[in-house]
Design goal:
Shape: elongated
Distance between the termini: 73 Å
């Protein structure tokens, strides 16, 4: 039982390594440049940089009831 388990475990590992070897890689410098370009292009849409309009802010303080 242990031998079969060990063999199947090794087969899964080999399949995983084959899968990972087939993944297309890119240089870190290229990925960093693309990430920087993406951030600059989408900075106008970033709520942390631009802020949210007062009416659509889901985190604003709730208003109290005027009937009280």
């Amino acid at each position: 039982m242990s031998t079969n388990s060990n063999v199947s475990s090794m087969q899964r590992m080999v399949e995983q390594l084959k899968f990972e070897a087939g993944i297309e890689r890119m240089k870190v410098s290229q990925a960093a440049t693309e990430l920087q370009q993406y951030c600059v292009q989408n900075a106008c849409k970033d709520a942390l940089l631009v802020g949210l309009p007062a009416g659509s802010n889901p985190f604003r303080e709730p208003r109290s009831c005027s009937l009280l």
